[in-house]
Structure formats: C-alpha cells, structure tokens
Design brief:
By secondary structure, the chain is α+β, with helices and mostly antiparallel strands. It has 2 domains: about 60-250, Penicillin-binding protein 2a (Domain 2); about 255-610, DD-peptidase/beta-lactamase superfamily (Beta-lactamase, 3-Layer(aba) Sandwich), CATH 3.40.710.10.
C-alpha cells in the first residue's frame, strides 16, 4: 500500500514539472502578441496620425494676422482704422498652482491691480488656444515698459501685440459703418475653410459686414523648426499676410457731422442726404446711436445687455426702419391721380372740413377746408381732403402702382440691405391675405384703408432712405436711383442703376411746382427765408400719427437747387409731436446750409485753381 502511494506522488511531480515550461511559453507568446498588436495599431493603423504629431513637435507655425482695410470718407478722411494694442497673457501649462500664486502677486504689484481681479480674469478668460489666458488688455506704453524691465522674473507671463478696430469719431455714422466682433465657434466651423481663425474679428452690420471679404485680407505666417526644448533652429518658409483693401465711401465727413449734431437733441430719428443724380449717400445718421469702439474693448455682461437690450434700441438704424410718412407721401397720391387719368393736372377739388368714408369722417388739416383748389395749392397748404378725394377716387391699385414706380414696398438696392426694412404699402391683396397678422379672408380691404393710405397713414410704412430715393425722382427729372455708400468704380448712371420712371412730364412738373410752393409760401416756407445762404429749395412737411400708439412723427423731405437737383435731404424725428415744420424742417435746413457752404467752398477753390 505504501509503495503505491509513493508511485502516485512521483507521477504528480512529473506532471507539474512538465507543465511549467509550457505555461511559461504561452505567457511569452501572449506578451509578444499584445506588443505586436500594439505596434501594429500605432504604426499601421494610426501611423499617419502619430507621424503628424512628431512633425508638430519639431515644426511650429507662427500665424501673422492681416491688417483690416480702412474705411474712408469721399475726401479720404479715415472713418475706421486699426490700432495696436498690448495685452498681458500667461501660459498655464508652464506654471504649477504655487507658481501661479507667486506670479499673480508679482503682476498685482507691477500693474497696481488686485490679485482678486487677476484671479477672476484667469478663471473667466478664454484664448485663441488652450495654452494661453488673457488677463489684461489695452495696456499703456508705461505698463509695457514696466513689464519688460521685470520680464526675467515673470516666467509664464508675456506681452502680446495685436490689432484692434478703431473708430476715431466714435459714434459717427455708426449704423452705416457697422462694427467688428470676434468670430463665434459656430461661424468658425463654417468659415475655417476660407482661412478664418478663432482669433479673427468679423464684420457685423453696415459696411463692415457688407464688404467683409474685401476688408479682411489674408493671413500669413512663418514655419519654424524647433528642437525638443522649443528653441528655434531655422525658418522653413515665410508667407507675408495680405492687407485688406481700403474702402472709400460716398459719405462726406462735414455733412455727416452736421447730421449727427442736428439729431443729438431728438429722442429718436434719422437724417438722409443723397445725391439725386447718382444715388451717392452723402450723410446717413440715426438717433439714438452707439460708440463703435465699444466692441473693441473688454466689456461686462451688464454693459453688453445695456446696449443690446436697451428700450431705446440704439443698434436699430432709423434710416432703414419703416414708419408712417404722413403728408410727405402726398406726391405719391398726386402721381396716382394724374397717371390714372381720373384727376388730371388741371383738376380742382372742393376741400371741406371733413369727408366721410365708411364709418369715419376724415378731417381737413385746418378743420375748415380751403375751398376749391388744385394740386399746387393742395401741396402748399397740405390739404388732406383734397388728397383723400384723389386717393379714393383713383383706387388702391393706382396708388400702389405709383408707389412701386417710386421704389416703395421694396428694397432700395443699398449694399447694407441686410439692415434694411422693406416697408409696406397696403393694398387689397395684402388685406385679403390677412395683413400679416390675421387669417386670409378675415381682414378685407375697406374704403377707410384707401383714405388713410392717401395721406400716408395707418397702412403705409416707409423708411427715410426710401423717401429720399422717391424725392430724388422729382429732383432729377424722373429717374429712380440706386442708393449706395461705396462707388466701387461702378457707373451709377447706367441703366442698371438709374431707371427711367414711367411718369408723364405734366405729372412730374405739377408735383415739382407744388413742392416749390410749399417752401415759398406754404407750410415749409421757413426753410426758404434765408435766401442769401441757400439755393432755391422744394420740399414737403409731414406730421404722421404713430399707428402703434406712440406720439406723432415729424418729417421734412426736400431737394435743392430747385432747377438742377443736386441734393435730397430727408429729416425724421420719431415720436416728436408738434409738426414737421417745427421739428424736422430745422434739421434739414442746417443740413442744407452745410451742404451749400461745402459746395461754395469747393467751387471757390476750383475757380482759383483755374
């Protein structure tokens, strides 16, 4: 029995000794298999990726941003420029927590700023890359020199030099010029293939947005070979950045300054001055306005909200927004009456205290009537009941057709069309379709609508720019111009941009004579009192009810000189009751005085040169 047990134990030892080399063999095979698989994954499957990483470890690309093109007025005065700025940033990857605390204390002492402010900036800051945090911007030259003196003791911190958009006249022509802002992540994902970078600023609104592709330029850069310590070994190639193009505008700085000044005491409003021969905009201003340099400086969320969420809507261009035009619309009604043949140029109508249409009695301007008068006197005294009769008698189609011929209910063609309101000229189809707020068939066109439309109320909304374009037709002898802010070597008098309006000579001349009478002995005669400093003027006053429930709007539209038509000016004071002759006319008058002086000075200089 003992002998059998010994044999059994001996066989077990033999089996164990036999298995150990086998296990060790399979263990070695497993290690080599895992290693081989890993090497296959790294070198074959992801080889190109790791090769790229290797290249990036020894090649560094230094990007050089382009200089954005400037915006100039018609005489070459700079309205938008670029300014060098210095900012303080740190590279967190180079610092431990304790080193950052020490650096923060040193920077606090150097720049006389609390450590708490630096910590807040550190925590909220984002950068063009995850390796940099911007702590301070817009450093002064003295601060930069101070930093350079202590730079060796401020490891991890650096001074960066950049360019920022700068507007030397702050809020001047803000809505026309527009502004720039840092590109958003969403924009970058769409524009990166066109060469944009996360540090780019992109045009917002106005000319800055409309001419973004011309203004921005192209990035340049230098490829450097570096060693493992980051030391530059040599330059592998250099591509210089390409500066953006300067854009010369049609604006005249002196006239623009006057426009901004005459609007400064108004709650809200707009001024438009346009050359009726070409459509070149000489001045365009809106009130309230905003400082264009706001977007080039650091700002808090509260400051941002105060601008964008303000109840005054400072970012809204009143020159491009639509309002009831009041009596400045009456030339459109006159055109409808004469062109339809129902109320020819020689027609006289009896003006009375009130005319009933539907359920409403529409009153005369003076509440008494003016007796039997024709078009020219109807313009002169701004008779409502005369134009009620013409508008209702001609019909909504004739009125709408006349409005379309003069460019209303449509975009003007200006380059900054994205900021422009199309306006509204009410008509039967529009009403039958629901007026933009009701259900089709439930808001029919009624006679009260056409009566209101006849004097530019309720169902008519136009922009100051649209009105200026229409009055240019009366100033230039019957041509609809294309308003523009940039000449861009375009022939603005070609048929593409200057369209002949289908209007009879008698209609045109009757309206022109009526507008002239307004300022010689009518509601706008005050503008023509200083004959020594102004050429002959023609125009129309307007007082419009605000259908949204606000106070009345004040308007004045005019052109000068009467015979040659070289400038059209539209002045608009939003929710400023008292009448167009009281509030809007004085604004236009000052604009005309500036324009006339500039024109006279120019002619005087040219005369001397000859």
């Amino acid at each position: 029995m003992k002998k059998k047990e010994k044999l059994h134990l001996s066989s077990k030892k033999h089996v164990g000794a036999f298995n150990q080399p086998l296990v060790f063999f399979w263990f070695i095979c497993l290690i080599f298999s895992v290693t081989g698989a890993r090497l296959f994954w790294l070198q074959i499957i992801n080889g190109s990726y790791y090769q790229q990483l290797s290249e990036e470890n020894r090649i560094k690309l230094i990007a050089n941003p382009p200089i954005r093109g400037r915006l100039l007025d018609r005489n070459g005065v700079v309205l938008a420029d670029n300014k060098l700025f210095y900012s303080l940033s740190i590279q967190p990857r180079l610092l431990t927590n304790s080193e950052w605390i020490d650096l923060r204390k040193s920077l606090s002492d150097l720049f006389n700023i609390s450590t708490d402010q630096l910590e807040i900036a550190f925590n909220r800051s984002y950068a063009d890359s995850p390796y940099k945090k911007v702590l301070l911007t817009d450093l002064s030259a003295e601060q930069v020199v101070r930093f350079k003196e202590q730079e060796n003791n401020l490891y991890g911190a650096q001074i960066d030099i950049g360019l920022v958009r700068y507007y030397p006249y702050n809020s001047l022509a803000s809505h026309a010029l527009g502004y720039t802002q840092l590109i958003t992540q969403n924009e970058f994902s769409k524009l990166s293939e066109r060469g944009y970078k996360l540090s780019d600023r992109i045009g917002r609104k106005g000319i800055e947005a409309a001419f973004e592709s011309e203004l921005r330029g192209q990035w340049g850069g230098e490829m450097l070979e570096i060693d493992s310590t980051g030391t530059v070994q040599r330059s592998l190639g250099l591509k210089l950045p390409k500066a953006g193009k300067d854009i010369k505008l049609t604006l005249d700085l002196d006239l623009q300054v006057t426009a901004e000044k005459v609007l400064s005491d108004k709650i809200a409003g707009a001024i438009v001055a346009i050359d009726p021969r070409t459509g070149a905009i000489r001045a365009i201003a809106s009130q309230p306005t905003f400082d264009l340099n706001f977007f080039s400086k650091p700002f808090t969320n509260k400051q941002y909200d105060n601008l964008f969420l303000s109840s005054n809507f400072p970012l809204l261009s009143r020159a491009f927004n639509a309002y009831e035009p009041g009596s400045t619309w009456k030339p459109v009604t006159a055109m409808a009456g004469m062109e339809s043949g129902k109320f020819p140029a020689s027609k006289k109508l009896n003006t009375v205290p009130c005319i009933t249409y539907g359920s409403h009695c529409f009153p005369e301007y003076n509440r008494r009537g003016y007796g039997w008068i024709g078009y020219e006197d109807a313009f002169r005294v701004s008779s409502n009941t005369f134009f009620y009769q013409v508008g209702v008698g001609s019909g909504s189609k004739a009125l709408y057709d006349a409005a379309i011929k003069l460019g209303f209910d449509n975009y003007t063609g200006i380059e900054t069309f994205l900021d422009e309101n199309k306006g509204l000229v009410g008509n039967k189809k529009w009403a039958d379709d629901g007026r933009g707020w009701g259900n089709p068939g439930e808001t029919p066109w009624i006679v009260e609508d056409i009566a209101s439309a006849s004097i530019g109320q309720s169902v008519v909304l136009v922009t100051p720019l649209q009105l200026a374009r229409a009055y240019a037709v009366f100033a230039n002898g019957g041509y609809l111009v294309t308003p523009h802010l940039v000449d861009a070597n375009i022939d603005w008098r070609s048929e593409k941009y200057l369209q002949k309006v289908d209007i009879k000579d008698t209609t045109l001349e009757t309206i022109r004579r009526g507008l002239r009478k307004v300022v010689t002995n009518g509601t706008g005669m005050e503008i023509n009192l200083d004959t020594s400093i102004l050429p002959p003027v023609a125009g129309k006053t307007g007082t419009a009810e605000d259908s949204s429930g606000g106070k009345d709007h004040a308007w004045f539209a005019c052109f000068a000189p009467f015979d040659s038509g070289e400038i059209v000016i539209v002045a608009f004071a939003q929710n400023t009751p008292g009448g167009g002759s009281v509030h809007a006319l004085p604004m236009a008058k000052k604009m005309l005085q500036t324009w006339y002086k500039l024109n006279s000075d120019k002619q005087s200089i040219n005369g001397k040169d000859e």
